[in-house]
Amino acid sequence: MRDDPAPGQMDFVRNSISRIRGRSRRCLLTGTLTGLLLLLSGSPALPDPTGGALARGSAYMGIGVLAHDGTFDTAPPPPRASQIEGVDVSSYQGDVDWPALWGGGTRWAYTKATEGTYYTNPYFTQQYDGSYSSGMTRGAYHFATPDTAGGAAQADYFVAHGGGWSKDGKTLPGVLDIEWNPYGDACYGKSKSAMVSWIRDFLDRYRSRTGRDAVIYTATSWWTQCTGNHAGFGTTNPLWIARYASTVGTLPAGWSSYTMWQYTSTGKTVGDHDRFNGSQEKLEDFATG
């Protein structure tokens, strides 16, 4: 039997729950609370909202950041005219009201396409094509599960199911979402060197298939924990940093700046909100390659 959480742990849970509200009508508060309590007590996997282990395919960009990073800040970052608002979505959001997001100032979007070599987002077409139709620059991301298949195999699966790139000025390069494992061991059972090799295999294959370097989405604390703060990708792969605070904080080794920043998991309308570190013109240049 587990001991009751300490008061400080309960404060963390309450603060985290307040950040998680609004993610989705599918995420029940009771399930989220149970998940955080299990994480605090050492459970290796997040529960789903109805109980039991989280089902494969259910992960989304930032799921591990919510549970592990602990960098929550009550103050959102101040608006910046030089940064362009974006959003990332997955099957949790279902059919997205893209015109409403466009009307609210969102100008770019990423949609979860795949996970591992076993899952494709059933809402991908509505989300990916809908963002494009609304006028946004759009892209796709892959949730990595290095414990289920090799990096090259997962890159192939991603490209085959919506993760490709075209030089049309409206399609962003694919993203490798590499973060804490929601289904088990934080580093997917890999040593630091093995994790770096897995990431390199994914990135090399993605570039060979598309002609673009994939974006790496991660959190500095995970990168340090699971790659040993490897500095070898900063000169080739753009960084999408995850940190729910008023500043991005320290970046992973190898990167002197970030391309995108996921700054909150409580989007004003739907999904997680993000910023592109540049003007609209820079965003279009980034899409064009």
UniProtKB/TrEMBL annotation:
InterPro entries assigned: GH, Glyco_hydro_25, Glyco_hydro_fam25_subgr, TAT_signal
Keywords, sorted A to Z: Glycosidase, Hydrolase
Domain of life: Bacteria
Gene3D superfamilies (alphabetical): Glycosidases
Transit peptide found in the keyword field: no
UniProt KW Hydrolase keyword: yes
Family: Belongs to the glycosyl hydrolase 25 family.
Protein name in the entry: Lysozyme
Annotated organism of origin: Streptomyces rameus
